[in-house]
Amino acid sequence: MTPEQKLRSLPSIDALLRRDEVQRLIAKQGRDSVRDRLREVLDEMRAEFRHEPQSSNINGLANAEALTQEAERRLANRFVKRQQALTQRVINATGVVLHTNLGRAPLSQAAIEAITKAASGYCNLEYDLTTGARGKRGSGLESMLRDLLGCDAAAVVNNCAAAVYLTLNTLAEGGEVLVSRGELVEIGGSFRLPDVIAKSGARIREVGTTNRTRLSDFAEAINENTKIILRSHPSNYRIIGFTERPSLAELAQLARERNIPFFEDLGSGALLDLAAIGIPDEPTVQHSLQANVPLLAFSGDKLLGGPQAGIILGQKEFIDRIKRNPMMRAFRVDKLIFSALEATIATYANSKALTELPAIAALQATKEEVARRARNVLRRVRNDKLKLQLLDGNSVVGGGSAPGAVLPTKLISLTSDHLSATEMEAQLRQNTPPIIARIEENKLLVDLRTVSKNEEKELAAALARL
Ligand SMILES: *Cc1c(COP(=O)(O)O)cnc(C)c1O
User: I need a labelling partner for 419 at 20 to 30 A (CA). Which of 39, 72, 141, 258 fits?
Assistant: First the structure.
């Protein structure tokens, strides 16, 4: 067939709409959207016949039936692609516990139930049940945080980036932010501290050097324009070797003596000391409060193990000013986040965080526990074409936290007679639910650390189908 003949043989929209395959799509997706997508597919094919007649996509289409089937295939593909772009559950077999691309911390059962209840009708988001008058959004969470951590006051915004921006904008706009040269960093993706400071309307005054900053450097840099001292936790990097920086308590004392606000961007905001499970150097929120840091912020969905949020804690005078910032309205969180965050904090308050927060439980799992679960999965996989092995390896904390942490794990390694590692990885990604695994040295690797118990069956079934 010449390109012109192909153009003339393309099926009409009406003919395509009568096909069984297309009828099935109409039943699911609605007639209008199928017709619109068909129009796009036929336009696309016409353009290819005209402009790239030698392209391998269309070269082999030798008769009207082949053209029709190609149109059907492209139509179905469009709906698959659209479905894949929608937010959906995936099985995280990467071993990266706080995987930012996969939604960071999975929520606890209690948090899921709290969200479901808050979403299923009205709730007292800004309504005081004691007085029957208008209440304060987040007041319940604030008193939970006060009781648990002994802080003075708290505010909650959408994420830690918003917390940093809002704090600096409130307290330092038009003035200078003192920050160590070693802390002006990028935390991954789109969070670059210097850019956020600039947007807050404050100017950066760099203190010390990249590897060594002393308390005296801060003391000497303070002038009449100094509005705040900022300390940022080196979340995803380490400066090692010849290094120095003042302790939190020293900086807090200096700030107090000079009557300047001091703000710590803690990043992860662990509430539990995780050194015992192989995550050293991850400071806790309690540690900062004990060092008399008057104002600090951290994420809700990193080591805290809750929903995406930014939590600001500290002295009431600072928190009140932050809450009065008109931009607070743009960064406030909704009823679903408050309910999930309250349930997450309640889990710490009743000392059940280690077992009931999925991210914390996953971080704690020993290599032996992961190995036992991996063997359980392997027992379920009947597939002669696969070679399955258990290998030693490491899992990763993720979420820009604890780059130095080592979490020894047991990996399922897969190789196949008929599929490459890349093909297996892609096939698992197309599974329902999608399974995300990683490839190393031409082996497909599955880490059970981040797979929940009730996902094991789905995982085994998908491996059996490879
Ligand atoms: C992760 C991180 C942020 C950004 O937190 P989000 O909640 O993702 O906005 C800011 N500062 C530090 C130190 C971090 O580690």
Answer: 72
CA–centroid distance, 396 to ligand 1, in Å, is 17
Lowest mean pLDDT among 62-66, 162-166, 222-226, 333-337: 62-66
The pLDDT tens digits for 418-435 are: 999 999 999 999 999 999
For the chain, how many residues are written? Answer: 466
Same domain, 434 and 372: yes
Task: Of 80, 75, 77, give the one whose Cα is nearest residue 22.
Answer: 75
Name 179's Cβ contacts closer than 8 Å, sequence gap at least 6.
193, 197, 204, 205, 206, 207, 229, 230, 231, 232
**Is 275 found in the same domain as 175?**
yes
Q: Residues 118, 72: one domain?
A: no
Residue 435: give the domain boundaries.
91-101+360-464
* Dist CA 165 CA 170 (whole Å): 8
* Contact 167 CB / ligand 1 (< 6 Å): no
Mutate to test the pocket of ligand 1, among 102, 265, 296, 303 (most ligand atoms within 8 A of CB): 265
Residue 324: give its domain's CATH number. Answer: 3.40.640.10
- 402 Cβ inside 6 Å of ligand 1: no
Q: Which residues of 303-318 are buried (b: 16+ CB within 10 A; e: fewer)?
A: bbbbbbbbbbbbeeeb
Residues 70 and 96 in one domain: no
CA-299 nearest atom, ligand 1: 7
Same domain assignment for residues 218 and 73: no
Total domain count, the chain: 3
Co-location of 145 and 292 in the same domain: yes
Q: What is the mean pLDDT of residues 227-250?
A: 88
Ligand 1 and 158: CB distance under 6 A? no
Statement: the pTM of the whole predicted model exceeds 0.90: yes
As a whole-number percent, the residues of the chain with pLDDT over 90 amount to 83
Q: Is the distance from the beta carbon of residue 246 to the nearest atom of ligand 1 less than 6 Å? A: no
